[in-house]
Amino acid sequence: MRKPLIVLALFVCLLSGATAYATAGGEATDTVVNVLIALVVILVAAKIGGDATTRLRQPAVLGELVAGVILGNLVLLGLGWFEPIKHDSVIRALAELGVIILLFQVGLESNLADMMSVGLSSLLVATAGVIVPFFLGWGVGIWFYPQHSIYMHVFLGATLTATSVGITARVLRDLGRLATNEARIILGAAVIDDVMGLLILAIVAGIIRAADTGQAMSSGAILWLVAKAVLFLGGAVVLGRVLYPILFRAAGYLRGHGMLLVAALASCFVSAVLAAKVGLAPIVGAFAAGLVLDEVQYRDLPTLASHRLEELLEPIATVLVPVFFVLMGMHVDLATFGQGAVLGFAAILTLAAILGKQASAFGVVRAQGKVNRWIVGLGMIPRGEVGLIFASIGLGLTVHGERVVFPEVYSAVVIMIIVTTLVTPPALTWAFRRPSATAPPA
Amino acid sequence: MRKPLIVLALFVCLLSGATAYATAGGEATDTVVNVLIALVVILVAAKIGGDATTRLRQPAVLGELVAGVILGNLVLLGLGWFEPIKHDSVIRALAELGVIILLFQVGLESNLADMMSVGLSSLLVATAGVIVPFFLGWGVGIWFYPQHSIYMHVFLGATLTATSVGITARVLRDLGRLATNEARIILGAAVIDDVMGLLILAIVAGIIRAADTGQAMSSGAILWLVAKAVLFLGGAVVLGRVLYPILFRAAGYLRGHGMLLVAALASCFVSAVLAAKVGLAPIVGAFAAGLVLDEVQYRDLPTLASHRLEELLEPIATVLVPVFFVLMGMHVDLATFGQGAVLGFAAILTLAAILGKQASAFGVVRAQGKVNRWIVGLGMIPRGEVGLIFASIGLGLTVHGERVVFPEVYSAVVIMIIVTTLVTPPALTWAFRRPSATAPPA
Fold first, then answer.
1. What is the rounded CA–CA span in Å between residue A381 and residue A414?
2. CATH topology of domain A102-433
3. Does residue B273 sit at the A interface (CB-CB below 8 Å)?
4. Domain boundaries, chain B
């Protein structure tokens, strides 16, 4: 009885915020007022959307995306209140900071030792889960858009590669299965997968940028890009191991509050900037900074140890991360869904995304004990934030004035992400509850 | 031996960040990279500056200001690395978000009940501490700048009124004297003082804006401004008491993480926007939202109670608040210090600021027990962030094309703030340690 009333009240808040936004425009000094209104709209929408999908036993990120899709497409009904948010440069910067913080968190949740211990199975699962979807996506691109350049086909393949470690981990935690063999293999593979996917992104984006400047990318340049990426990640690991203790020792000498958080964020941001300087995405640097940073490196310094770093990052992520997902959702143009070909393309792309990851199941090494291969294959399905990041980078790439990812493709990718995110929790629940769940299916 | 080396290493980091900033300029897509570099420079500078002043037993905010002054004036030595930071619109928006969060925190630290219980003494101390500095500042303005408009003189008076509750509270906590009678009176008065000061700011800024549009501000318009401000603050109290329980009950029904933080920030931001809409500064709204919000209103909701709100806000404040103070410091133009008249003006203004607040001591009511009037008077001295906010608002005001606060006046105000912030900790320490500290001096 009362709950719908309260959600209605929140929605009224949202609309009144939007009206204020629309009337506040014009005065340049009111930038901060517009930013405040946009943040209220985005955060309230994200929380209502997250609540709705959480009640449906789906991850909150799905609700944030859908909330963004709704806000961004009210303009189709003639309600243009939220349009200024799409183009607010401060909100865009906050969204990009949000995804950098998220990848830093994901990096912190993973660590090198865990990646080593899950070993060969994770590596093979990840490799199969990258290669097969990549070529399936490439093929779907050729099938539906034969008139477009090879760059578009390759980019489409790349968007299908990376598993979303955040969604996978959250689903496994929700199901209470984090301690299983399958969970360890999936999480390890998802981490390797992320790195491979980000490498592929860097290489594909580099090839496309080179093509745009006229000359074809030489094989030497491709090798140099791969080398730079590998050197950056390897260098991050080696340098991080050397520099983190010095950095946190220095931060431990400084008096004042917030030293741990500032030292951690500074290294995350510096790493993101360095990644950008060698041609990688800033998020690769943020992820690498988190991967190398370990609690061991700061917990012995008495001035730093009052809170765990993850606890300190959480409130910042709570505010900034939804800005990224809601804004990404807002850039989904529902008008493109009217074209029958897009829906068909989205359906085939989604099928390729789901089937492609089932190849992962065959990467599990027999020797690693009883493993349900179904669970591994299904657990690799969600693309989540990483796929969206790929697509948003693709939106900014052009070859000879032609956009590599045009609106229909972006919409299809978003549909693929929504569907892969949506099917995973029920699919995994089903796989864990099957009578034969303890025996490998093949 | 090792500490100077480590600070040197941090400084080298800072400079390499600056070099990266300088070379990164130009590409529009690299906005986020520039923001990341600027944040690293600001946060590292803030923490080094805060460390230095903390070692000198001064508040960290002073070190952040001084660090900003140094960064902002390296250009005088021909080092222009940090100049782009001064004009980065995203960094400016982050700074303004920072001061909104800070005033929200200050509001949360205060509460209506405490303000009522310290009662009459706080009210009289606050009133005396607002009226006397206001007219002293006005007089100093007429003395030094007789050729300038009355608006400039009145604005100068206004910048001397508000006590910085943050600095006062931090100093009392550092001295371990938060539980004394004097501390309760000072804190209560500082809160009332803040509200009075912000009202004066709204009225003075309103008068100046009206004057700029040509017509003199009618007494009716002044009354309407006062009425709007009082109505807003009264309305915030009444509406907050009614709406907060509904809001937090609604947030309690929503599933997902971060509901308490998002609900609190959303009400802070909405209140800031509403304050801006009635002509007050957004920070007034943020302060009012914090003042009315009480732990009672959310701690019974099980989904919200895992962390205290203050704990959740702290990491966000750690990152955003120094951006405000360092950026404010960066806008201090040391070149103006070369003019002898500015230094003399700054000295007299500082004297007026310190002596004016000593009138507060006579506001203490005898009946409230043994109170050391020296401590009350000295405790009201620091102007800190509120004075800076006044000055920065003044920088944006013009009457007939003439800026109300011109660079020399701004520099003098900053010197006044630095000195009043600097003298308070040793002065209070001295007053608490005098042999006659338990007896009132008059």
1. 14
2. Na+/H+ antiporter like fold (1.20.1530)
3. yes
4. 2-87, 102-433
